[in-house]
Amino acid sequence: MTPIMSGLMKAVGLVALLGLAACGGGSVGVHKQAGSSAALARAPSFGDAHPVAWTGQGPGAYPVHGIDLSRWQGAVDWRTARANGVSFAFIKATEGGDRVDPGFAGHWTGAAAAGVPRGAYHFYYWCSPASTQAAWFIANVPRERGALPPVLDLEWNSASPTCRTRPAPEVVRAEVQTWLNMVGRHFDQTPIIYTTPDFWEHNELWKLRGMEKWLRAVTRHPSEAYPGTDWSFWQYSGTGLVPGVQGPVDVNAFAGSREAWARWVADRAL
After folding, report:
1. Mind listing the pLDDT tens digit for each residue in 73-94?
2. Predicted confidence band at 43 (pLDDT cuts at 50, 70, 90)?
3. Is 68 labeled as catalytic in the residue annotation?
4. Which of 98, 153, 155, 230 is labelled catalytic?
5. Domain ranges within the chain, ordered by starting residue
């Protein structure tokens, strides 16, 4: 979920179109009967500026795909994006305890107007208390009917000009648990954590409670990058090319069938 500058050449074109089969995969807990309100786009017609030759199970095994984005993608033609396979979007809302992403409001309203289910994410800052960051997210993200669960983005930010600290794993987990508890109570939803293989392993995030998982793995399947870990979302590329979006964007797959996605949304949307 590291921001990708939209200035990257769009001229690479829609290379390596995903051959997306309409079959399910992964393991996602589902509890309620699906409603008919889950917006589901058609099979995605995404490209990739730097395609991967998947040797095992690739993203084409999953029929439901979406994007995550921030200010760096600029204005999005959400109706075009949905028409080309964007079934969901996670949008950067806040960072630390005092920053709101300038693109959040526009993306939030635009996705909703186009019928794209969307949720908000918070980029964690390791030099600010979890309680402060949770309160900041709560203060800046609408509690709207139909919104997807809130997301906490967990990764080291070695490029930060103000905070390059790396707390001990037990401190990381304690702070993250505080954020999950506060935000989960406010939105009455089980939050999702987004993370990377190194962060997951170093901080033993499997010890956390009350979360769903969104895992980054851009060269291999999550079952290889996170052995034995269930997941709901897989970020399989940071250089996706999606009609309606300016320049490269993070692209993701949902860990289940189209029917499972409808049930997941019905069960979890606010």
Report:
1. 999 999 999 999 999 999 999 9
2. confident
3. yes
4. 155
5. 58-268
Cα dihedral 251→255→261→263 (10° resolution):
-150
Q: How many CB atoms lie within 10 A of CB 66?
A: 29
pTM assigned to the model: 0.86
- What one-character-per-residue DSSP string does 193-258 give? EEE-HHHHHHHTGGG--S-EEEEE-SSS-HHHHSTT--BSEEEEEEEEE-TTSSS-EEEEEESS-H
Which of the four pLDDT bands, split at 50, 70 and 90, describes residue 39?
Answer: low
The CATH code of domain 58-268 reads 3.20.20.80
At residue 38, the pLDDT reads 56
| SS3 label, residue 182 | helix
Is pLDDT at 258 greater than 80 in this prediction? yes
Statement: residue 153 has pLDDT above 60 = yes
d(C-alpha 100, C-alpha 94), whole Å: 4
Bridge partners of residue 68, in order along the sequence: 90, 250
Question: Distance of CA 25 to CAs 21, 33, 61, 260, Å?
Answer: 11, 19, 7, 10
Cα–Cα nearest to 249, from 114, 96, 65, 115: 65
**Active-site position among 48, 68, 101, 175:** 68
Cα–Cα dist 221/236, whole Å: 8
Alpha carbon distance 233, 35 (integer Å)? 20
